[in-house]
Amino acid sequence: MLERNLHMLGGTGESSYAANSTLQKRYAAGAMFLVKEAMESLVHVIPTSETLLVFADLGCSTGENAFVTHSSVMGIISKTCKKLDRPMPEIQLLLNDLPGNDFNTLLGPALSSYKERISESMSDIGESFYTAAVSGSFYMQLFPKRSVHFIYSCASLHWLSQVPFGLSNTTQGPINRRSLWISNKSPPIVSRLYLEQFQRDFSLFLKHRCEELHSEGRMVLIIPGRVSANPSTEESSVWISWYEDSLQDLVSKGIVKAADVDSFNVPFYYPSMAEVKSIIHTEGSFEIIKDHAYEILYTNCLDVIPADTDKIWEKIINISRAVLEPLLVSHFGDSIIQPLFSSTLPKMYAKESFKEKYKLANQANLAISLKKK
Predict the structure, then answer these.
(1) What does each C-alpha distance from 185 to 1, 56, 231 come to in angstroms?
(2) In the sheet that 286-297 helps form, which strands lie side by side, from edge to edge?
(3) Average pLDDT, the chain
(4) What domains, with CATH codes, occur in the chain?
(5) What are the Cα distances from residue 114, in Å, to 77, 109, 111, 266, 358?
């Protein structure tokens, strides 16, 4: 069920992910130096007899972000090949996401436009690159063994394969009432269940990627995370509390049932760097080449004029809506969308207390460059 409902909002409308993914684009930009180093190293060690280089983007979603990153990778490969005086290999780009992803938008006009730009800007590449969509969970094996040279994932690995087992399946009912995630109102067991689910999922991810990677394979992962050791801090998830307050407002108006809110938990986990590195070491398939933690202010990613207050709140609503709407609809039904996004959230965002909190809100990101052992 979750695999079908867990996807970003498709299409190209004002509330779509394609129109509201500048934040994720900034995540990628903050770690592009790791991608550059990894690709240069890879081209140096791949034998010239190998005429095909396979690049996989896991959790690509929709919109131009996957192609922006791939364009940079193509440029790095081209420049490195020229320095080494070796022929440019053919490039295979594999775009992966869950079955509910809007692959039609991803592989439509945006891809055609991207191919045209590549052909114009990189004459040595011409038509020597190919694109394919691969539908499926990256917590399973996706590609043949030793078939991929470089794996990249940005702003995807915080999503879990499922809501942690035990949050709702108890004889006492839901244990995380009035919270959608890990909050300071949650009992301690909630944090533990989320961490255990992340450990299981990330370990599986590493295991399958090791099987799929070439013997000289490289991987760069960018994971939204946290700086604090305490997962219940609001540093990286301030927007979750806005939804908690808004859903409770809908409960008070009789639009949503309290029991439905109590049983709704968002299936993602923002790990710390220590947690991520611990899982990598324990799983044992990869060597950490370099890691980098950095923060992005939400207010720097809105693409609107700061003085245009109405546009700021509208953009904030659309950014979070692009991520959460499919999950909200699958749990509460379509009837929640209009009152939540057109009435309740805008009223709450207009509060001065919200404005002050949002000015300081940021997202920590954990970037890690890995080499297959």
Answers:
(1) 28, 39, 12
(2) 129-135, 90-97, 52-58, 148-154, 213-225, 362-372, 286-297
(3) 81
(4) 2-372 (3.40.50.150)
(5) 17, 8, 5, 34, 35
Q: Are 73 and 35 a contacting pair, CB within 8 Å?
A: yes
**Lookup: tokens for 126:** 């011409």
Cα-flanking dihedrals φ and ψ of residue 45, to 5°? -100, -15
- 244 membership: H or E segment, kind and range: helix 238-252
What global pTM score does this model have?
A: 0.88
Backbone angles phi, psi at 260, to 5 degrees: -70, -35
Residues in contact with 202: Cβ distance below 8 Å, sequence separation at least 6, in sequence order: 157, 271, 276, 279, 283
In this structure, the chain runs to a length of: 373
Confidence bin at 146 (pLDDT 50/70/90): very high
Give residue 351's pLDDT.
61
The CA distance from 371 to 373, in Å, is: 6
**Amino acid type, 134:** V
Query: Three-state DSSP class for 210?
Result: helix
Pairing, β 362-372 against β 286-297: antiparallel
- Within 308-351, residue ranges assigned H as helices are 309-332, 337-339, 345-349
Fill in the amino acid letter for 17: Y
